[in-house]
Amino acid sequence: MDGPKTIQADWGTQYQVDFRTQGIRNGTSLTIIVDSQTYRVKAPQTINVWRDSGSSVSFSMNATVTEGFRRYQLLDWRDSAGASVKSPQKVLKPETFTARYKELSLFPCIIATVTFGSEISPEVQYLRNFRDHLVLSTRAGSAFMSVFNVWYYSFSPNVADFIASHDNTRAPVRIWLYPLIGILQLSSLTFSTLAFSPELAVVAAGLVASALIGLFYLTPITVSLARSLARRRTRNFDVVKVFSVSCLVALVILALGEVTGSLALLALASSAMVLTTLISAALVFSFVLLNVANHLTSWLKAKHPSFQDRQ
User: Fold this and answer.
1) CA pair distance 95, 81, nearest whole angstrom
2) pTM of this prediction?
3) pLDDT score for 67
4) Which of 19, 105, 115, 175 sits a CA distance of 20 to 30 A from 287?
């Protein structure tokens, strides 16, 4: 020090600027770019930066985001007051910018859309909402849909093309689909009743839907199978036991998949559970129908001996 000195500290004001997302399922991966710097995040993670007062900040995010069987589209950016904003923005106070997304359907309900004539028809909207907001809201449901979509979209485009080019098929297919919608409504009620545990709820809803779909759509087929088994002297109890054990094993594997978080186990178990429930429900109902028919025939023979002669 060779003499008196004056040291002046110059202070500048900075404000924190936050960037977040809205409308995207937690865990979905996306990219935020702030002033040319890229941030890889997973919703609902927030990016925080500091900027000088009066400076500008630029920002952008994926126009569309795809995660598994979900797709999201960027709607707009909003500030902390809820006003729509565009990049860049001047920094005059602490601020939060929110990227708002809308969930889109990655896999359209092709057959239903062609049958009912529009993607916004009430029937198609219900089927899509059941899938996207109920089934896909859970791990077990998402795992099942990963298998179901591979199967369904392997043939549905061809079926939809056939319906689109043959108008006279629309009415029969509508009649065929209405019971399915009613069954899914009952399944939704089951899910709502057990909504306190979504994973349990989706399994219960799946069992209800599978059993009722099997009863309504497969019974005409399984009646013939039940008759064939009866001719071979196969006991009904043995057949039901096989399917019951198979369904129980599938439920055990499903529980193991939930505990371990294994999507492979969940996909395998949920698919097996649905398949065995479909067939076993239809078979049990077919056995009941045949037993009722046999008892009725026996009663008629006892009451009206001439009935046997007509047989």
Assistant:
1) 9
2) 0.63
3) 72
4) 175
